[in-house]
Automatic annotation (TrEMBL):
It holds the Pfam family MatE. It is a multi-pass membrane protein. Coiled coil: none annotated. Belongs to the multi antimicrobial extrusion (MATE) (TC 2.A.66.1) family. It is found in: Cell membrane. It comes from Anaerobium acetethylicum. GO terms for molecular function: antiporter activity; xenobiotic transmembrane transporter activity. One of its GO terms (cellular component) is plasma membrane. One of its GO terms (biological process) is monoatomic ion transport. Multidrug efflux pump. InterPro entries: MATE_fam (IPR002528), MATE_MdtK (IPR050222), MdtK-like (IPR048279). Keywords: Antiport, Cell membrane, Ion transport, Membrane, Transmembrane, Transmembrane helix, Transport. This is Probable multidrug resistance protein NorM.
Amino acid sequence: MPNNMTEGRPIRQIVLFAIPVLLGNLFQQLYNVVDSIIVGRYIGVDALAAVGSTGALIFLVFGWIIGMTNGFSIMIAQSYGAGDFKRLRQFAALSFVLCAVMAVVMTIGLLWANGFILRLMQTPEEVFKDTYNYIGIMYAGLAITVFYNMYAGMLRAIGDSRTPLYFLAIASVLHIILDIVFINVFSMGVEGAAYATIVSEFVSLILCVWYTTKKYEIFRMGKEDFAIDVSRIWKLLTMGVPMALQFSVTAIGTMIVQAALNGMGPLIMASYSVAGKIQSLVSQPYVALGATMATYVGQNRGAGKIARVRDGVKQGTILAVSFSILSAAIIFFFGDVLIKGFISEDVQNVTKTAMIYFRTVLWFYPFLSMIFIYRNSLQGLGDGLMPMIGGLLELAARVVVIYFVADRLGYQGICMADPFAWILVSVALIPVYYKRIATIQDYVLHSHR
């Protein structure tokens, strides 16, 4: 059901919205985690390295998609908060058009450049074929990813975070079944893991389209809503493109890290991949809170309730930092146990290598949690530029560490890239948020005099 986040206690609205987002994110993470567990256990470390080495590329490509569709959904959230449903439908219709163009261009371009990109990332020959096939199948299904994220973003923009959760749960169960069938029964190798992901995500998309069309009259778009409006397209792009670039430049930094890892062999690649999967899981509470703040701030910004924005962001920050401390504790005490769940060979060496990463980064999780809160809050306010600049700072931080620290310290130096980037970006975003919110509040006060 729609959820008007401009009314009621902020903390209650935030938590009720964030819980389904968290569970949905966990189901989505389960896609990749199940791939890694089944591939690592039933095919081997080299295959796990092949799947794991695509993480940075997938983050780059899917991050662009998520950033773009999230930017579009901010305009829908602001329209919903303002009660302007005609404008909401126009933004939704034009988002559909822009997403269709994006899906076609990205699919053709990435399939064409697949081999070149993998060579550029120094993908080892022993895993090149598996990596090429796995990521190629993911590229072929990009249209599914684009439109799923668009529809899920539309639902979350009006406060409905439960429906995407239900459909992701169905898709995740299907994904596990297909993974086992394709890999164990049909012996399809890493390609089977990719096909399982695409098919299950397609089911989730079909369910989202069916439910949105049937349930919400405000999203029943007519021919007039698809009329080309340059000003509205420009607004969508001025939110979507900076947010997409923010994800992309962050991903480029991750790809630089991955390229450095690729030169160290499959063991290091597999270990870093496992650590990344686990970290993605334990950090999901503050990822979910960040996504919640984008909708919460967007709706309240549209309604002109700036004091309520302040209260919600403050309470969201406290929650996120608390969860980051809990995440660090889980990794500190149980990290080695979690790592062993991913592998069946060379267990001791993979566990030891992955724990080097964790012992380096877990102390800095509070900085990571604040990035999600303040980056998404700025986006909800309509500021797409500063989050993009934050992404550039993140890229710069990783480049500096890789080329000036990792050269001396090796793998240990590579592990320092993440915390250095988190500190730099959080220190940059927080004061900008407070300056933006003060400026908007002054504007709202003067406009009502």
